[in-house]
Write a structure and sequence with these properties.
Length: about 375
């Protein structure tokens, strides 16, 4: 989501005025910074640095990490924070605009099969499209083996915007993936004959997963699970309920948190809570019969990115909370939940002034963040030792 500098300033000013819980920096020592929060003091430590626009982080079973860089590199990060050389075997990516090498996840049976999945912008005639690949991690030789593109988005190509590209794997092994509407083709999010503005469900080989809602329907793509989306930048399964949750960017206002239902229509661009970048009206209304409402939306936009439900032991007060990063909002956001209702919002780490691209829970129970810049960092957030 591209936002003018003046609008970013307005967003941050409004956020400070509206936020009930303002997080205050209390000191710095070396590469560690102390912050206050509802869970007590937070210690933010730089674990690794000098990544170029890091986009996604995934933990391996032994505690090491995979990290993607949008220009097209994937690296292993050791438990000491050392970066490997770029892994060989990554397909060519189209690193243009918002496109490049994007999300990566580790298969639930990775310890046995070494499999990973990742998505990226692939060059095609007239622009780019979202593609999904499967590979086996051969970390001993610093490469990916048996790399295969298992899915390619169909529909008008992107000139460089709105690829979506977050992946979540269900317990049955099937993959949910967000696919953007390429910005210039927003009306296509309502059309079932292409993959623009859709959330798909595919088997590990890339085929439409059994039980998808539009299998056998004339003119509809069988991979589609839900539709009417803009640019999904967060995706996770809520461990408390087993439901799939998604976060997507709105335009000027209207970022959404949605609970995804099979075959449901989430309304873009017919309904929503934002306006166009030039101030023009986009939506016919904020609600319409047959279209789903978000459980949370932001006006003004914060540009949320990354998503997790916290289940760790380091922050017992935050058990069950939903976390997302914010790009335009330059912060970490915690949403307090009661079932499927958002009951509170806490804005964290604002004084870092960092675009937070991804947020993950580590095996140590800490929160791990990626900062989106040309000298991006991996940050570890844990309770303060002071």
């Amino acid at each position: 989501m591209k936002t003018p500098v003046g609008l970013v300033t307005a967003v941050l000013t409004a956020a400070i005025l509206l936020t009930a819980t303002l997080v205050i920096a209390t000191g710095t020592r070396g590469q560690e910074t102390e912050f206050r929060s509802s869970a007590g003091g937070l210690e933010v430590r730089t674990f690794a640095r000098d990544l170029v626009n890091p986009w996604s982080l995934a933990f391996l079973p032994d505690g090491r990490m995979l990290v993607t860089e949008r220009p097209g590199r994937m690296r292993i990060v050791t438990t000491e924070g050392q970066l490997s050389p770029p892994l060989k075997g990554v397909p060519e990516v189209w690193a243009s605009g918002q496109g490049g090498l994007l999300d990566v996840i580790v298969d639930k049976s990775h310890a046995q099969n070494k499999t990973i999945y990742f998505c990226f912008a692939e060059r095609t005639s007239g622009g780019g499209r979202t593609a999904i690949a499967r590979a086996k991690l051969n970390d001993g030789n610093g490469r990916l083996d048996e790399t295969k593109i298992i899915f390619r988005q169909e529909g008008p190509p992107s000139s460089g915007n709105h690829y979506g590209c977050r992946i979540a794997q269900a317990d049955d092994g099937n993959l949910f993936v967000t696919l953007g509407e390429h910005f210039a083709y927003r009306d296509q999010a309502q059309e079932l004959g292409n993959h623009l503005g859709k959330l798909i469900r595919i088997a590990p080989d890339g085929s439409a997963a059994a039980g998808n809602p539009f299998i056998g329907r004339a003119g509809a793509r069988p991979e589609i699970w839900s539709y009417g989306h803009r640019n999904g930048q967060g995706l996770a399964i809520n461990p408390a309920s087993g439901e799939l949750w998604e976060i997507e960017h709105g335009p000027r206002g209207g970022d959404e948190v949605n609970i995804i239902g099979k075959g449901k229509n989430y309304g873009w661009p017919v309904i929503g809570y934002g306006i166009d970048y030039n101030g023009a009206k986009i939506h016919a209304s904020a609600a319409k019969d047959g279209m789903e409402q978000p459980v949370k939306y932001w006006v003004p936009s914060i540009a949320p990115s990354g998503m997790l439900f916290y289940t760790g032991k380091l922050f017992p007060k935050w058990s069950g909370s939903l976390f997302t990063g914010a790009l335009a909002g330059t912060m970490l956001v915690r949403l307090q939940l009661s079932g499927n209702t958002v009951t509170g919002e806490e804005r964290l780490l604002q004084n870092l002034h960092e675009r937070i691209r991804d947020v993950r829970q580590g095996p140590d129970g800490a929160l791990w963040l990626l900062t989106d810049s040309s000298s991006g960092r991996i940050l570890r957030v844990a309770p303060s030792s002071k």
